[in-house]
Amino acid sequence: MSIVERLRKSSFFIVLQRSQSRAKPPPKKRMDKLDTVFSCPFCNHGSGVECRIDMKNLIGEATCRICQESFSTTVTALTEPIDIYSEWIDECERVNNNEEEEDA
């Protein structure tokens, strides 16, 4: 028996083979779901605003079920409901700031 054959049969070679095996990739982290229901900026109802995205027409709409206020905007493939709601809040703040400047 040659030295190579003896090494292959020895427990030392088996241990080396086991330690050279690939490590498992780390598990993928799960993304938390973002909210689709928000507080209305007009009537302050806690869960009154619901956001819907129509990818066919590229329109996002946020509507309050309580006071019937609504906001529409264009969307992209990356748009989430929180983006539509944030744009609505930004637009409300922009309108309020313009009214305050006109009054002054």
From TrEMBL:
<dbReference type="GO" id="GO:0008023">
    <property type="term" value="C:transcription elongation factor complex"/>
</dbReference>
<dbReference type="GO" id="GO:0006368">
    <property type="term" value="P:transcription elongation by RNA polymerase II"/>
</dbReference>
<dbReference type="InterPro" id="IPR038567">
    <property type="entry name" value="T_Elf1_sf"/>
</dbReference>
<keyword id="KW-0479">Metal-binding</keyword>
<keyword id="KW-0804">Transcription</keyword>
<dbReference type="InterPro" id="IPR007808">
    <property type="entry name" value="Elf1"/>
</dbReference>
<dbReference type="GO" id="GO:0008270">
    <property type="term" value="F:zinc ion binding"/>
</dbReference>
<protein>
    <recommendedName>
        <fullName>Transcription elongation factor 1 homolog</fullName>
    </recommendedName>
</protein>
<comment type="function">
    <text>Transcription elongation factor implicated in the maintenance of proper chromatin structure in actively transcribed regions.</text>
</comment>
<dbReference type="GO" id="GO:0000993">
    <property type="term" value="F:RNA polymerase II complex binding"/>
</dbReference>
<keyword id="KW-0862">Zinc</keyword>
<keyword id="KW-0863">Zinc-finger</keyword>
<keyword id="KW-0539">Nucleus</keyword>
<comment type="similarity">
    <text>Belongs to the ELOF1 family.</text>
</comment>
<dbReference type="Pfam" id="PF05129">
    <property type="entry name" value="Zn_ribbon_Elf1"/>
</dbReference>
<keyword id="KW-0805">Transcription regulation</keyword>
